[in-house]
Amino acid sequence: MFFIRAMGCDYHHGTDFFIRREHGYDCYLALFLKSRSILSENGETIHCEPNTFIIFNVGSEHIYGADGEEYIEDWIQFECDSNFMSRLNLPFDRPVHIDERIELDRYFALIRSVFFRCINDDIITDDLMTAMLTEVSVLVNRRSGDMPYYKELLALRRKIHASPELDWSVKMMAEELHISPAYIQELYKKTFGISCMNDVIECRISCAKNLLTGSRLSIREIAEKCGYNSNIHFSRQFRANTGMSPSEWSASRQPPR
């Protein structure tokens, strides 16, 4: 889904740093501005505080730079399916202030570590980029101040993605937040745009893809590590999400001889 062309973290430049690219890139550019910076939006100069995030659309003009102090940024040039980006409903070419609710610097650091070691970068990068952009989308489109249990839901989702092997159920999630099962299903879908159990399934399948590519574990062992008690159930759910059995998917990822 994602292909990263180039990226960097904690790039430092002087107070005279300024970029103007009339036609931008033929890919997306994500910037995380860590210092006071200036941007141009529809011909208007915008003064941005540290912790500002922006995604420049494909072909959009890039105008940004330092604002009276040392300029510091994280950046990623990436390709992605335009339909997926549309579903996220992110504002292109418009700065978004990010507060403590999203640790973007940690996301960039994790993505960088995968990008430069070049191990399973396609699978892990997909997960990290999807998680990062989804959190920004939630912040922009739903505004946490208007959502009940926002921080608790975010912590729950992180726990699900960190531990897909747990026996997750709607009842278990509801107990985590001390609310009813019906209410958590409503809140989860409204907050993240996906039902809580479908999110668990997507997380487990993503974990399985990673293990099928990067380990020598058996199908049974992978199923167990991804939260499945039955190989048959795991294989059926994997095929429903990928169109292939786990064995077929693993074989398709092997380099040609």
Secondary-structure element sequence?
EEEEEEEEHEHHHHHHHHH
CATH superfamily of the largest domain: Homeodomain-like
Query: What's the helix count?
Result: 10
In the CATH hierarchy, what is the class of the largest domain?
Mainly Alpha
The percentage of residues in β strands lies in 15-25%
Q: Kindly state the mean pLDDT as a whole number?
A: 87
What is the strand tally? Answer: 9
Helix content: 40-55%
Spans of 5+ residues with little confidence (pLDDT < 50)? none
What best-fitting shape do the alpha-carbon axes yield? Answer: globular
- Give the CATH architecture of the largest domain: Orthogonal Bundle
Provide a descriptive summary of the structure in words.
This protein has 257 residues and is of the alpha+beta class. The protein folds into 2 domains: 2-101, Regulatory protein AraC (Jelly Rolls, Sandwich); 145-252, Homeodomain-like (Arc Repressor Mutant, subunit A), CATH 1.10.10.60. It contains 10 helices and 9 strands. Strands 1-8-3-6-9 form a 5-stranded antiparallel β-sheet. It has a 4-stranded antiparallel β-sheet with strand order 2-7-4-5, with no helix packed on it. The two termini are 25 Å apart. The model has no long low-confidence stretch (mean pLDDT 87).
